[in-house]
Amino acid sequence: MKEIIDRDSSVEIHDKFISTHVRQTIEAKTEDSFIEYVKRFKVDSTTIFADVSNFSFRCIIDYHDEINGPSCMDHVVNYICPISIECDEWIRNCGCEMDKYSFYDFMAIRSVDFFNESINIEEKLNILINSSLVSPGIRSNGYIKFQIFDSGTNVFSSIDIPEKIKLFFSPFKDGQGYELQLRIRHKVKCGDVKFWYEIIGCENIIEDAFKDIFEKFKELPFINHIYEAKLP
Fold this sequence. Notes:
Helix content is 33%, strand content 34%. It has six helices and twelve strands. It has a five-stranded mixed sheet, covered by helices on one side. It has a four-stranded antiparallel sheet with strand order 5-11-10-9. Strands 6-7-8 form a three-stranded antiparallel sheet, with helices on one face. Mean pLDDT is 83; it is low at 1-19.
């Protein structure tokens, strides 16, 4: 009788395990979807791991704990923070030399990321590309001063372009915006001017944005376990 009871009991436990065990990996497309999924299925042992090396979060719903011991860890939801278009454009072109026409076109397209006081840079670059450069730009009081000649009016004049421009954009798609500064660089050779730019603090902006999301997740009342870690 004892053997039959044990056998039936083990079968009952096994059937229960099959009916409740979830083996599924979900790829969340948005931060909100990731949060909602975790909130819906979380248990006491649910754990989130944040990997700053690839800006991703992995939540193991059925993670093991000190009470229940080892777990299968088969119910997982992942979220990779998507780099925004504007962030990708600014970072990818940072340090790349452009002729004045290409530089103007790029700045005109990305002027949506300028602070209001930086908007006039587009107008000034437009004047510059439609004039002949007389002398190299001279830095003075935060501006680059160019001597130009307008062949249409036969007039010599000067134009001041801000050396630094304030930017505001989100490193991640649909994420929080951050303020940065852009520094314009240039060189002149045989009357031909080349422009490029540097973004001050560019190397840390994505990492800082990721850590801010990490801190936000830590504050969620239904998240009990969250760590900075890279899983194998």
